[in-house]
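Posted in: Structural Biology > Protein-Ligand Complexes

Title: Requesting predicted complex, zinc ion in pocket

I'd be grateful if someone could produce the 3D structure tokens for the following input. Sequence and ligand are given below.
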Amino acid sequence: MLKQPSSKYPAFKPIGLKDRTWPDAVLTQAPIWLSTDLRDGNQALIEPMDVARKLRMFDLLVKIGFKEIEVGFPAASQVEFDFLRRLIDEGRIPADVTIQVMTPAREELIARTVESLRGARKAIVHVYNAVAPVWREVVFGMSVPEVMGLVQRSVGQIRRLTDAQPETEWVLQYSPETFSMAELDVSAQACETAIEAWGAGRPVILNLPTTVENATPNVFADQIEWMSRRFADRPNVILSVHPHNDRGTGTAAAELALMAGAHRVEGCLFGNGERTGNLDVVNVALNLYVQGVSPNLDFSDIDAIRSEVEHCNQLPVHPRHPYVGELVYTSFSGSHQDAIKKAFAVRKDGDVWAIPYLPIDPKDLGRSYEAVIRVNSQSGKGGMAYLLASEYGLELPRRLQIEFSQAVQAVMDAAGKELSAADLWQIFEREYGLADAPVPLQPVMQDVDGQSVRVSARLELADGPVAVDGQGNGPIEAFVNGLAAATGRQLRVLDYHEHAIGSGAEARAVAYVELRVDDSRTLFGVGIDANIVSASFKAIVSGLQRVAPSSNQTSEIQQVG
Ligand code: KIV
Ligand code: ZN
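-- Reply #1 --
Done. Output follows.
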């Protein structure tokens, strides 16, 4: 790279619109959307869509709610021409949807384009030519008056040909290509020329592209406000924008352009298109939605839309892509997970959406909460506790979370990859010996004197069988005393939690017991059983058994995941 890039890449020039008003504008309604997936998007594909894929894309766009769809460049190839004819001849275009087709400003292509639309109910003929200095001078070798002559002749030809097909309701769209790089007065002159050749008072869309995005979006907004002042008071003129994404600011350019006076936006689903893509219309639409503005496009099942788009385009959508990517509703960071969990816990039906790190409710787009919290080495205890709670109904006491997170971290460090809820459950089961927990056999509980209880049972511990016989204020204390006597250990219960998992006949109880053993170790035991007292006994045994876990068990745990 160059040390002084300015000699090769001169800075873009600001517009100097001192009295600009767009910075204060607030977007309160959706623009007219035009999908160009079948034209600009399609032309940028490694393998352009065949007719079957085009039909699927068209049906998808209709289902989402697009009312204007650019269906292709029919003069470019037979596939494009045939696809358009199928849409018209098979009556596939709904009454409230208008198709648009594009043609360069070339006589023979214009003629074939208008011909391809024969019999359509309504159509937008989109003609473009280059107006910016590099294109007009270097690529086409044309002076400004020659460019205006081309616009005048091309639009005049479209007018004559479309007048000869009066069964169709016609709209002209004129794009001064490379608008964002052209002198504003040259673009405006080209637009005036197009309007005049089309006939004042007839419907026209002036479509202003950032053919190649070349400046910060505020500059584009100034350009749009400049054009809007010039054309806004003409009721038959609609100002449209067509951003690309070369600087990665296509969405911002579209939004600021709407604030600056544009009423229509052209783009593609998930930003497919030439180079870095066309504007991502889904992004702009859902940005409006999360500002409380209905976009009039339906993304209620965004994953189904993504898979249909991936099929048609034969290109994947990135896992981090706004609103749709596989990972965009997932938090791996422990502090994020903690914040999300707290906000979900206090959220009530009907509340405004205020969940940290989730700008939109995934359910509105047909996504579930399942993937919201996932556990990797960055996660800490919050995510793991959330997953065990949401998937297995365990409400781990806070100190147990801290203890268990060390076991999880050990596995994570060894495996070095994400852990699923099932992985966490497996680690939990092994760590607390749930699968093979010794069951107190033939337990007998007797009331001694109306104040204390006596518990006796047999147990198969790892070190051999023991007979438990103890007395205490309640069954837990009695069992702990009996177990201490039977094993020769000192045992004290420091903390105790229990709750039900599930409901009805399937309900089980889970008990968490924090034990102090031999006055030297503090650790938890966990027990699960249909009976709450048995669950508590199992939890106590689980804690005691964990005092000296075999080295075998630790190495097995570390292999999980
Ligand atoms: O990006 C562009 O300039 C175009 C025009 C044809 C509108 O796609
Ligand atoms: Zn384009």
